[in-house]
Structures are given as C-alpha cells and as structure tokens.
Amino acid sequence: MSGKELKILTNRFDKIDPASIDDYINTGGYKALKKALEMPREEIIKQVKASNLRGRGGAAFPTGIKLESVYKEREAQKYLVCNADEGEPGNFKDRFLIENDPHQVIEGMIICAFAVGSSKGYIYVRGEYDKPISLLKTAIEQAKAKNFLGGGILGTSFNFELEVRTGAGAYVCGEEFALIESIEGKSGKPRFKPPFPTMVGVFNKPTLLNNVETYSNIPYIINEGGEKFAAIGTPSSSGTRLISLSGNVNNKGLFEVPFGVSIREIIDLLGKGIPNGRKIKMVQLAGASGPIIPENMLDLRIDYKEMADNNLSLGSGAIIVIDDRFDVLDIVYRIAKFFEHESCGKCTPCRNGNKQLVKIIKKFVTKTATEKDLSRLDILINVMTQASLCGLGQAAPTAIATTMKYFNEDYLGGICENEKAVAIGG
Ligand SMILES: Cc1cc2nc3c(=O)[nH]c(=O)nc-3n(C[C@H](O)[C@H](O)[C@H](O)COP(=O)(O)O)c2cc1C
Ligand code: SF4
What we know:
- Helix 2 runs parallel beside helix 6, helix 3 packs across helix 6 (about 100-115) and helix 5 (about 95-100) crosses helix 7 (about 130-145).
- The strands form three sheets. The chain has a five-stranded mixed β-sheet with strand order 8-7-11-9-10. It has a four-stranded parallel β-sheet with strand order 3-2-1-4, sandwiched between helices. It has a two-stranded antiparallel ribbon with strand order 5-6.
- The longest helix is centred in the C-terminal third of the chain and has 18 residues, at about 350-365.
- Strand 5 and strand 6 (about 235-240) form a beta hairpin.
- About 45% of the residues lie in helices and about 15% in strands.
- The protein is of the alpha/beta class.
- It folds into three domains: about 20-230, Rossmann fold (3-Layer(aba) Sandwich); about 235-325, Ubiquitin-like (UB roll), CATH 3.10.20.600; about 330-425, de novo design (two linked rop proteins), CATH 1.20.1440.230.
- Bound molecules: flavin mononucleotide (FMN) and iron/sulfur cluster.
C-alpha cells in the first residue's frame, strides 16, 4: 500500500470472503447498525451532517441534508434507493465495493432507512454486473436470516425490506429520476425538478437516493462519529475518495485516497507512471461526461473546492490517462458519438444538440471545418448546458468545451486550409 492511500471503505478487501456474512461480522460488521438502533434518529442525522459527507455519485450534494429532508416528510411510506447503475465509462468503484464487501453498503442502507423512517429499499444495479447482483442477493438473504433485515429488526419495531433491481443498459438510468421511473416499471426517462426525489420519488413517495460509495461510508461515520470522519481529507472535502484509475498507466485499478491528494500523485505513485516512456497528453476526469485537462494541470488536488474554483469536477471519481499517441479530436468525436447514442430524446437541446455536435466535430476530424464551426460549437455548448432537462445533456459537451479551452490549436488544425488564415487572424 502506498503512503497516499487510506483504506476505510476498502479495508476489508482481500481480507474477507465477500459471500460470508460471518466474515463481515467478525471484522466489525453490523456493529454500527446495532449502535444506530439505540440512537435517536435525529442523532444519526446529526452525525451524518457533522461528517460533511457529500454524495459520491457525481453531484456531491451533502448527504446529511438529504437524510434530514426525507426524515422531515410526513408520509407513512418512504423509500430508500441505492444507485449502483455505474454507467459512466471509466468508473468501476461501485462494482469493486459490492464485489469485495457487499454487506457494507447494505448496512449503510439499513441505518439510513431507520434514520429517515423507510420500510422498503431498492438497490438498482447495472444489468451487466452479474457477480455484484448475485453477491447482493446472497447478502440480502444472509442479512434476513440474522434479522438485520425484515420485520422487527434486532428486537425493535423497525421493519425494512430490501430488493435488487437490475437496469437494462441505458446510461441515462443512472440519473436519479430516470432510475426511479425504471424501478416503477416505466421506460427510464428523467423528470423535471423540483420536486426532488426527497419529496416526490419512487411511486411519488419521499425517497432517499444515494450512491453505493455514499451509503458505504455510513457504518464508519456511526462507529467513529461524524467529527472523526470530517477530520479526514481537507476543510472542504471530508473522508476518502475511491479513484477508478485507467488508460495509459502502468498500474490501473481502484485506489482509496483521502481528499487532498493531487492527480499527479495518483498517476505517478499509485498508477506507477506511463508505460513505454510515453508522455501524458491529456487526462479525462469523471468519465465520458467529464473535463479533459492537459498535463500542466495535474497538480490540482482531489478537493471539491479546488476543482470547482477551476470549473472542473471529478464526478464519481474516474481518472483516465491518455498518452501522446492519441489525438484530441478523435477522442472527443468518440465521446460525442457516445452521447448521441445515449440521449433519451425527451428534450430538444440534448436530442438535437448531440447530433449537431457529432456532425461538427466530424468536420474538425476530417479537416473540413470552417471558422464558423468554432462559434457554432460555442453556441451549442451554451444552449445544451443551460437548457437540457437533465445532467446528461448538460454535461455531454464538457469534453468538447474543455478541449476547446486547453487544446485550441488542435481545433485550429481541423479547419480547412483556406479558412485557417481567417481563424487565426492572418
Ligand atoms: C446521466 C446521468 C447518469 C448518472 N449516473 C449515475 C450512476 O451511475 N451512479 C450514481 O450514483 N449516480 C449517477 N448519477 C447521479 C444521480 O442522478 C444522483 O445524483 C446520485 O445517484 C445521488 O447519489 P449521491 O448523493 O450519493 O451522489 C447520474 C446523473 C446523470 C445526470
Ligand atoms: S438531457 Fe438528454 S437524456 Fe436528459 S432528458 Fe433531455 S434528452 Fe433525455
């Protein structure tokens, strides 16, 4: 283990048999649930708020505030949902969490269900994740047999049932409302917000919806206290971050680091550098929907504030390293094709905007673009980010916008010769 790693969520990896609930219990598992059941619900929420935990699914919303919102809703039926769709290319942390420690996320969910007053939960898992689906189903049966799930949990009056639902492969179904529609048996399409799922979620009832990594942090927070969690990382970003590191690095894989570590440290020390003596050309953060930055920005730290100050986001934690053999325009063309395919078609800016992006970027790739295409891209990016109904359309042009900013010369290289003189002011 490198000095840069801090194993809280991944502490049991390789130490337990993930299919054994006894292994989980013997390493401190379900201790937090027992403790939580003896705490007032408000105190659980207070601890999560004190931890400053923010959602790890991409939007980084404060988890304690979500819990409090659902808790305050006065409906008899409330739902809990775990988002394990993980459709963003380059991300594999949720799969690793479930494959190595399925009870950790389940324990986190049960504690949250108790805190907000929910009796029914769903884990929505990406359909291709055969092993995680099977491990989760086994873990749920084991937890039921030990009365951690079901009726009258551990002698209390608290009841909670948990069910696994699988997605059918649409990227948009990771978006919270599309996922909720899918759970309800409809075609997965986002809804207008507000109201948010905390008020009107599954079957129009208040719903707490969080990512796998977010729920997995809850047992630690309850066992150790919110303040101890808040002390890990940086003032603006508490706890650890799971990094899915891939692309042109020697040591690809999942790494858990405290907030505050730089992207360069992750690539050099954990990823062990770039193979075959090549140089880094660019790094994509977050996944296909994330920004692409040049090598000279790699000293940026994994920190919500530092990222936001630079108009960047790490999304759900992917770092994709791309070396100097690759062409910027070719990469953004592939990304644009991906979003054209994944757009659900519900709103015009995204449905038509992604088609237009593909057409225009193709002109740059084939060096047939004109100067006007640069301003067309600017306008399209602006309209899509401002007017798309959900995060898919809003984030789809991010790779194009950031490469236009940091790799402008590559776009100028895509303008046909007679136009070039005008574009560069010659
Ligand atoms: C197109 C799209 C795809 C998303 N995919 C995922 C996903 O696979 N997993 C996830 O946890 N969140 C995903 N999100 C974010 C969710 O909408 C939501 O914010 C998140 O699950 C909330 O959990 P958190 O507060 O724990 O982060 C996606 C959002 C959008 C717009
Ligand atoms: S932004 Fe795209 S994915 Fe989202 S609702 Fe509109 S068309 Fe569908």
